[in-house]
Design goal:
It is built from 6 helices and 2 strands. The protein has about 110 residues and is mainly alpha-helical. It has one domain. It has a two-stranded antiparallel ribbon with strand order 1-2. A hairpin with a 5-residue loop joins strand 1 and strand 2. Helix 2 packs antiparallel against helix 5 and helix 2 crosses helix 6. The radius of gyration is 14 Å and the shape is globular. The two termini are about 15 Å apart.
């Protein structure tokens, strides 16, 4: 089995650390929005084959909405931030759990 890239491990650890600092489920949604760039910079090919599929399912949930535009057609929110904004509190919790599970498995690859 091919090991994941150390970049994915480092960046995902930063993301998970921030998400674990949420003080409430509502705060979790805000933290996910603030961490939305990680969904763009941590690319699926950085993961081992088994984790790549899981990360792709996370990305699908984080990108289920399109960009948000104003009345003039200008982008005011990227697809990830718009998707997270439209998630329920329960869906945010599920997304965070999925991210944490990938991180734990990734951590085992580097142990």
């Amino acid at each position: 089995m091919e090991q994941s890239n150390i970049f994915a491990f480092i960046e995902l650890s930063k993301m998970v650390q921030e998400l674990n600092g949420a003080i409430s489920k509502e705060d979790l949604k805000k933290k996910l929005q603030r961490q939305s760039a990680y969904f763009k910079i941590i690319e699926p090919h950085y993961f081992s084959e088994s984790l790549e599929t899981k990360w792709l399912s996370i990305l699908a949930l984080a990108n289920k909405e399109d960009v948000k535009r104003d009345q003039h057609g200008r982008i005011i929110s990227c697809a990830v931030r718009n998707s997270i904004n439209n998630l329920t509190v329960h869906e945010c919790t599920e997304l965070t759990t999925m991210i944490s599970e990938v991180y734990e498995r990734l951590k085992m690859e580097f142990s």
